[in-house]
Design goal:
alpha/beta; Ferritin; nine-stranded mixed beta sheet; three-stranded antiparallel beta sheet; 34 helices; site-specific DNA-methyltransferase (adenine-specific); methyltransferase; D12N6_MeTrfase_N; restriction system; SAM-dependent_MTases_sf
Length: 853
């Protein structure tokens, strides 16, 4: 029972281990190419089994049957499989044959090369040849590359290891639940992170893809989609994910990619995600040099698409190598060619040319396109005059692995209402840091998309800009011209510093406290002069009074009740998911509903609640629902799996089983809820061990004090570092000294502490081993009620408290501001002067007492 998360982790760990020093952007071609060939082989075997009417059998038996049938029917069998798939893999060239050769010790790298070449020949006579042609060309998979190994033996060893990585994966079964496609996309993303600047050739970060895809999917009736700089195809697939299943079945995919290896990666990626060959049209070519796709009957209009998405190379230099003129139909709308030194608008105009009248286009661009002048300024002016620019979304810097610059997503439409304003969103401040990269959280993505869909204005975040305002700025669309960042720093008040007190205007700015508990706040303040107040009690007491106020308690109870009802509703649904359930749809329902619930409460940030639910899916539900769907809730709860750990290093590195873990119920949670007495006993012993260590540390410090009893008795027992006693030395010294002496008693005390610590440590080790074994066995016999309690705790244990805390959070934020204001103005300038004068007088008095002898 292997889940998509486990497959992803296993494959990436394998890739990291096998890659060695090879560049990640190159190694991905080998790994993903061979993974895809395993898929083609598995599909061939599955098709042979179905068309031949064979029942369930072991894979080795199926290969044997296929080999016999090929010997008997020859080309007739090939054509039968080819008619179904558009390709076939002959028995002698199957991935499974490579595995057999490896097991028999007969493996040769040439066999892999021959297999890939033969596949090219088998599809050359097929009507679907363009779908698979060149997938395994030498430019993509060069098995003679010395980066795979300096000699044939090394290359053979490394390729064998890579082949074995996919040996036990049934690619056909994995594709049905999109597990295979997810794993492939995950690997592409991981390779992108490892590749640094080279990643820009083939990958758009997931969170940026999500922003673009969700906007496109929500605002267009999408039947066809086009990415002129398609990379690995991740943008196309992300849009697909956000469309209804019925729409997905009939969606047409178009894309063009200049890099041949990446072009091959795109086709593999789409095929693995279940996109039928006849539904994809992917071309290997330069998007800007020659227009594509073209409609021969309407050469000046271009093929139109419902959605256009792209993440082109930023500010591509020398883009116009083909010597294009402004008369090119793609650039006519602009009236001028983009500068040859910066190709950003060239890509935009190409995409816009292919955008259908009712479609939506989303493109990632550097900020320079918003304000640069000359030809780019003219193009921007023409686009605005034509009313094509719909929205500009500023994103944080350092989102991409290939550049640290901040980028913007521009949304374009051709069917905008006359005089409809341009929506500008500044999302550049909403992110978290993960390693060296900035990352948008799920709540940040949701906030952007909701703001776009609702066309709403939020102070400091978004605004609707009329054409006249843009004209006033001479068509400069730099985001700070229209959205002023909110300065959260409260200006200092000179009078308050001089005379003390908190400015009343700062108290008035505590909007949430003022609107909810203004009376409680008012009773906690005293006016000391006109416009200035001071606190009558510490902020901690004010905070306690506010949070225990009946109005706040009532709101907390209301949100608690609604959160419990929400959880109870989905608790029932989640326990009963099956293979027909759409987990993506279920997750979306939960996320939308929590926003709706929280929207009824003033001053709560609904996106904080959204993130809470998104984290539950990320940390638990994505994994667990997949396993539950394969069997059922209680069966999954009583299922355990080997706990595999990596031991050794280098050539001795290996995976070994270290006990068992629950498939969905965590061992730690079973121990916490069902073995609390045992845990408490272990904790008690650990506390005593810590106490002993503290006693020994105290004795060590005392032994360093010259002429003390401890120094005389124990000083020579310290180790070279002087940080601990040598147990052997203590035992040896005890045999020499007389009983009853101070020295003997101190040595005996140290000996006993050592003995007690050793005994307790052994007891803890034995207790932990017994508890671990008990938990592992308990998994198999958990009752339904225990599984309910354990899984409820895992999924929703802290959720209600987290939702209730959303009521307290804005109040506590303002109370922190109140504390800051109090601290800021607590010491007035006159008080500081008085203290300074006092210290000066005391110093003078001290000086006068000094007598020079």
């Amino acid at each position: 029972m292997i889940t998509s998360e486990e497959i992803k982790r296993r494959l990436w760990d394998g890739a990291s281990e096998l890659r060695g020093s090879m560049d990640a952007s190159r190694y991905k071609d080998y790994m993903l190419g061979l993974m895809f060939y395993k898929f083609l082989s598995d599909k061939t075997l599955e098709t042979f089994k179905v068309t031949s009417g064979l029942g369930q059998m072991a894979e080795s038996e199926l290969v044997e049957e296929y080999t016999k049938a090929k010997a008997e029917y020859g080309e007739q069998l090939d054509k039968m499989i080819q008619n179904v798939l558009g390709y076939y893999v002959s028995p002698e060239y199957l991935y499974q044959t490579w595995l057999k050769d490896i097991n028999l010790g007969d493996f040769e790298v040439q066999k892999v090369t021959d297999s890939l070449n033969n596949f090219e020949r088998t599809i050359a006579v097929s009507g679907d040849s363009n779908d698979f042609k060149g997938l395994f060309s030498s430019s993509t998979l060069d098995l003679t590359d010395t980066a795979l190994g300096s000699n044939l033996n090394e290359r053979s060893k490394n390729i064998k290891a890579l082949i074995l990585l996919f040996a036990d994966l049934n690619m056909v079964a994995l594709q049905k639940g999109d597990v295979l496609g997810d794993a492939y996309e995950y690997l592409i993303g991981q390779f992108a992170m490892e590749s640094g600047k080279k990643a820009g050739e083939f990958y758009t970060p997931r969170q940026v893809s999500e922003v673009m895809a969700q906007i496109v999917a929500k605002t267009s009736d999408v039947k066809s989609i086009y990415d002129p700089t398609v990379g690995s195809g991740s943008l196309l697939l992300t849009v697909k994910k956000h469309l209804d299943e019925d729409v997905q079945k009939n969606l047409s995919y178009y894309g063009q990619e200049k890099n041949t290896a990446t072009y091959n990666l795109t086709r593999m990626n789409l095929l693995l995600h279940g996109v039928r060959p006849e539904k994809m049209t992917i071309k290997n070519g330069d998007t800007l040099s020659q227009d594509w796709p073209e409609d021969p009957e309407r050469p000046n209009e271009g093929v139109q698409f419902d959605a256009v998405v792209m993440n082109p190379p930023y500010s591509a230099k020398n883009w116009n190598k083909a010597g294009l003129k402004v008369s090119d139909p793609r650039f006519e709308v602009a009236g001028v060619l983009p500068p040859d030194s910066k190709g950003d608008f060239a890509f935009l105009l190409h995409g816009l040319f292919h955008l259908g009248q009712n479609g939506t286009m989303a493109i990632v661009l550097p900020h320079g396109v918003l304000f640069r002048g000359s030809a780019e300024g003219e193009i921007r002016e023409r686009l605005l005059e034509k009313n094509y620019i719909d929205t500009i979304i500023g994103l944080p810097n350092n989102l991409f692995t290939n550049t640290g610059i901040p980028v913007a997503v521009m949304i374009l439409k051709k069917n905008r209402n006359i005089n409809e304003p341009v929506l500008i969103i500044d999302a550049s401040h909403d992110f978290i840091k993960v390693g060296k990269q900035n990352v948008l959280q799920e709540k940040d993505i949701a906030k952007i998309v909701d703001t776009y869909v609702e066309r709403r204005e939020v102070n400091g975040y978004s605004c609707l800009v009329k054409r006249e305002d843009i004209l006033e700025n001479q068509y400069n669309m730099n985001i700070p011209r229209y959205i002023e960042a909110i300065d959260k720093e409260i200006p200092h008040d000179v009078d308050a510093h001089l005379q003390g007190g908190i400015p009343q205007k700062n108290i008035d700015d505590l909007k949430i406290l003022q609107s909810t508990v203004s009376d409680v706040l008012g009773k906690s303040l005293k006016e000391i002069r006109d416009g200035y107040v001071e606190l009558l009690k510490p902020v901690e007491e004010i905070s306690d009074a506010i949070l225990s106020d009946s109005r706040i308690v009532e709101k907390s109870k209301e949100i608690e009740s609604k959160a419990k009802a929400y959880i109870d509703k989905y608790w029932g649904i989640l326990r009963n998911v099956d293979s027909s359930s759409s987990f993506t749809q279920l997750m979306d329902e939960m996320l939308v509903e929590i926003k709706t619930i929280l929207a009824d409460f003033n001053y709560i940030d609904v996106y904080d609640g959204y993130q809470i639910v998104a984290e539950i899916w990320k940390n638990a539900l994505t994994h667990d629902t997949e396993i539950i769907a394969l069997s059922d809730f209680y069966t999954a709860g009583r299922t355990r799996e080997p706990n595999m750990v990596t031991k050794g290093t280098g050539d001795k590195k290996r995976e070994e089983q270290d006990g068992w873990v629950g498939s969905i119920v965590p061992n730690e949670l079973i121990a916490k809820l069902l073995y609390s007495d045992e845990l408490e006993e272990i904790e008690s012993k650990n506390i005593r061990i810590q106490e002993i260590e503290n006693e020994l540390s105290d004795l060590v410090e005392s032994a360093k004090v010259e002429d003390s009893d401890e120094a005389n008795a124990l000083g020579e027992m310290l180790n070279e570092a002087g940080e601990a006693f040598e147990n052997k030395s203590v035992k040896a010294e005890l045999k020499k000294v007389s009983k009853g002496t101070v020295e003997y008693n101190l040595l005996k005390k140290v000996e006993k502490l050592f003995a007690d610590k050793s005994a307790l440590s052994k007891a803890v080790k034995a207790d932990e081993k017994a508890l671990k074994e008990a938990v592992q066995e308990r998994i198999l016999t958990l009752t339904n009620e225990e599984i309910d309690n354990l899984m409820y705790e895992k999924w929703f244990g802290s959720t209600v408290d987290a939702m209730v805390y959303l009521i307290e959070l804005p109040l506590k934020t303002e109370l922190s501001t109140l504390q800051m204001l109090h601290n800021r103005y607590a010491d007035t300038l006159s008080a500081i002067d008085e203290e300074s004068s006092g210290l000066e007088s005391a110093f003078k008095a001290l000086m006068s007492e000094l007598v020079v002898r």
